[in-house]
Design goal:
single chain, mainly beta, Cathepsin D, subunit A, domain 1, Pdz3 Domain, 3 domains, ten-stranded mixed sheet, 7 helices, 35 strands, about 10% helix, globular, disordered N terminus
């Protein structure tokens, strides 16, 4: 369903340029805790915009607050102008809007006089690819004034009122790293071994990137794409789809924290053409690495603090199947109900004069559709196609899984087999998928 926007103001044509106003009013507390959803290594937080409850991606890789994919929500926006948004992707910029003087709240945090950029391209839809509603992105303005701790393991944000006592207390057992804030985004120096040489690489700390590491091999003669790699769809930016290659690099390190053979992504030059790079940037650190830590961001002092969590030693996997799924709506499913609240019942007479009442309930369940198939992948080899609707996995109905749970199955180790049942037009087809890693 298309978004319903009640827009107040006037329109003019401008390009993307902004200076955010407003402030965050910290409540009369030393700290506040906000639970979040962690989906595909991405942090989804509840945000109220002008009194309407929405879900936003928390993204250190964006400067401004961005709104898209409102579905059936009605939202009033103020003082609106038109503009062009450009960023990662292989296409030109997309049409957008800028709205001033909005009110945002995240838990008890109140933000006044906020600018919001609105993407009106219907293809910019994170909800379908993540399987949960996502209506926008918030970045720098959430982090700039407070100490922000991200507890990936417990799925909690803790925001501390900024003072020296808090800073000393909460960072006691953490490893500090210096960051630079450039164009309102945090950058850190890392150590990368990709191509036989150890390279000091300046990388964006990007909580809005679900991959482990992105590297720009065309910007450094010392970083090369591994010999064993495959072409892949890496995601979608404001300027369209992002394509590139994936392969395992030898080593990656943040200070004393080292990782062997992580999977790195190498976006192609076409996808990067609309991005204004800061000097000497060679890539990004994403959620697949960051989720292995408790993290504290201190923008005021240009610091970033790390402490290992239970995820630290998890292996680095990639999608070995070649299937990219998305959420393609819902369907009404009838199931036996063990509860008293039902929508229908059937009476059955049993032999011997007894009776049995079967009660049913009807619920909306998710529908998962294949969005794309990677060339040369096991999924392509057995004949799966874009547009196939996934009905079952190993004889279990697909709607019993979340999209994230299915994606984890598709990252299984080499050799694992899945029995898939799909609907293609009016036909039901079964496939036996065997995972084969090429990295």
């Amino acid at each position: 369903m298309k978004a319903l926007l009640a827009i107040i103001g006037f329109f003019c044509c401008i390009h993307f340029a902004a200076a955010q106003e407003g402030f965050a009013a910290f409540p009369n507390k030393n700290k506040i805790t906000i639970p979040f959803q962690l989906v595909n290594n991405l942090i989804i937080v509840p945000v109220s915009v002008n009194g309407v409850e929405l879900n936003f991606l928390l993204d250190t890789g964006v400067e401004e607050t961005i709104l898209f994919s409102l579905e059936d929500k009605e939202l009033q926006l103020h003082d609106v102008e038109s503009l062009t948004l450009r960023g990662l992707g292989s296409q030109d910029g997309v049409d957008g809007l800028k709205s001033k003087n909005n009110r945002l709240s995240i838990g008890p945090l109140q933000y006044s006089k906020q600018e919001i950029f609105i993407v009106i391209d219907e293809q910019m839809n994170l909800s379908a690819s993540l399987g949960v509603p996502v209506n926008g992105i918030i970045g720098y303005h959430f982090f700039k004034s407070n100490l922000v701790k991200i507890n990936y393991a417990q799925k909690k944000l803790v925001i501390y009122n900024y003072n020296k006592a808090n800073l000393k207390k909460i960072t006691k057992d953490y490893t500090p790293l210096d960051i630079t804030l450039e164009r309102k985004k945090p950058y850190v120096l890392s150590s990368v071994t990709a191509g036989g040489e150890v390279v000091s690489a300046k990388l964006l700390l990007d909580t809005g990137n679900s991959d482990a590491i992105w590297l720009f091999d065309r910007k450094s003669g010392q970083i090369t794409v591994p010999e064993r790699h495959f072409d892949d769809f890496l995601g979608r930016g404001f300027s369209g789809p992002i394509f590139g290659k994936k392969g395992r690099i030898s080593d990656f390190a943040l200070n004393r924290f080292k990782f062997r053979n992580p999977v790195a992504s190498f976006p192609d030059t076409v996808s990067l053409r609309n991005v204004k790079m800061v000097d000497n940037r060679l890539g990004s650190v994403g959620g697949e690495v960051l989720k292995r830590f408790q993290i504290i961001f201190d923008y005021t002092n240009s610091k970033f603090y790390l402490k290992k969590n239970a995820n630290f030693d998890l292996p680095f996997h990639c999608n070995t199947s070649g299937i990219e799924l998305h959420h393609a709506g819902t369907k009404l499913v009838q199931e036996l109900s063990r509860q008293n609240i039902t929508t229908s019942s059937v009476k059955i007479e049993l032999g011997g004069g007894g009776e049995m009442n079967l009660r049913y309930k009807f619920e909306l369940k998710p529908v998962y559709e294949i969005a794309s198939i990677r060339k040369g992948s096991p999924a392509e080899a057995i004949g799966l196609q874009q547009g196939d609707v996934l009905l079952s996995i190993n004889d279990a109905q697909s709607y019993r899984y979340t999209l994230q749970e299915i994606n984890e199955l598709l990252k299984s180790d080499d050799g694992r087999k899945l029995l898939l049942e799909v609907q293609r037009n009016d036909k039901i087809i079964k496939f036996k998928l065997e995972m084969k890693s090429i990295l």
